[in-house]
Amino acid sequence: MTINTDEMTPNQSARRDRVIEAALELASEGGYDAVQMRDVALSAQVALGTIYRYFSSKDHLLAAAQLGLWQKQAVRLKARPAAGTSSVERVLSVLERSMRGALDNPQRTQALVTASSSPDPAVRECQAELMDIMDEVLGAAMADIEPSRRAEIAITLRQVWFAWLLGWVNGWNDAATVSRQLEIATRLLLA
To answer: Which of 31, 131, 138, 157 could form a disulfide with 107 if both were Cys (CB 3.0 to 4.6 A apart)?
Structure first.
């Protein structure tokens, strides 16, 4: 059973944040397989049971870490909106800025994408929040498009993005292919 983050004390929140940071560091060093709960506990200087108080599984921990990264990305994109005079240019700017972190840290990306595809119910909760954030970020870049069409395009782009990322982390394609295919999909959807 995980606890509600809104009901955590400052100390609990700090411990949870240390656990997430430790998991991200381990993922950066060695990908999904490098994130072992005992190692996370040791690195975060918490008891193993403390991790399971906040996260039901390794996949839940990594999905929560990914959600946190996207929450920060959304704040940055609101503070500094995508550049461009057209929806295509703005969406491509969002995608490029968002892919930068994935490209800069492929091991971590592999771990986060692998975990986010888990059927774990706790992961599904993170996925739902993550999808909302991604749709909002993509939608904001298309503010000049009718709202229902904008929502449909954002959902489609998000799904295409995830599919190509999944292919990249599984070795079916490379990062350049992901970026190229995202640009193609964006241009097709916004033509």
So the answer is: 31
- Give the orientation angle of helix 121-140 with respect to helix 58-79, to 10 degrees: 10
Is the CB of residue 28 less than 8 Å from the CB of residue 108?
yes
Burial class (CB in 10 A: 0-12, 13-18, 19+), 78: exposed
Would you kindly state where each structural domain of the chain is located, as residue ranges?
59-189
Fold (CATH) for 59-189: Tetracycline Repressor; domain 2 (1.10.357)
- The pTM of the full predicted model, rounded to 2 decimals, is 0.91
Average pLDDT, the chain: 93
